[in-house]
Structure formats: C-alpha cells, structure tokens
Design goal:
1 helix; mainly alpha; 96% helix
C-alpha cells in the first residue's frame, strides 16, 4: 500500500498545478477583456472625432472649392477683358 501522506502530497501538487493553470487562464481572459474595453474606447473616441471633425472639414473643403471657383470665374473675366483690350489695340 502507498503512504497516504505521499498520496496527499501528490494530489496537493496536482491541485496546485491546476489552480495555477486556472489563475493564468483567468489572467489571460482579464487581459483580453481589458484590451477589448480599450479598443471599444478608442473606437468610440474615433466615432466622436469623426462626427465632430468631418462636417467641419467637409464645409472647409466646400468653402475652398467656392473660392477656387470664384477665382476661376474672375480669371476668365480678366482673360476676356485682356482679349477685348488686345482686339481694340490691334484694330487701331
């Protein structure tokens, strides 16, 4: 027969190993949960940033496009005036 105290020591050692594995697994899942929360937080922050910044950026780009469009119209008018002035000079 085996010594009961030796069997107890072996069983205790196995229990400690299983407990350590469970503790490591719990730590892993806790770390995964924290990473998931961090990702969710960053994602939420990005959504808010996009909600706030995108409309302003879009409006700014539209304003710039209007300015460029106006400049092109002014440039076209200036070219027409220059062309008319050239015609007048060369007709004289």
């Amino acid at each position: 027969m085996s010594d009961p105290s030796e069997e107890f020591a072996v069983a205790l050692k196995e229990l400690q190993q299983v407990s350590e594995t469970i503790r490591q697994g719990a730590a892993y899942f806790e770390a995964q949960a924290q990473a998931g929360q961090a990702i969710a937080s960053v994602t939420e922050g990005a959504k808010e940033y996009i909600k706030e910044v995108l409309p302003a950026t879009t409006q700014h780009l539209l304003n710039v496009a209007d300015i460029v469009d106006g400049a092109v119209i002014d440039q076209t008018a200036a070219v027409c005036k220059l062309n008319n002035a050239s015609k007048a000079i060369f007709q004289v």
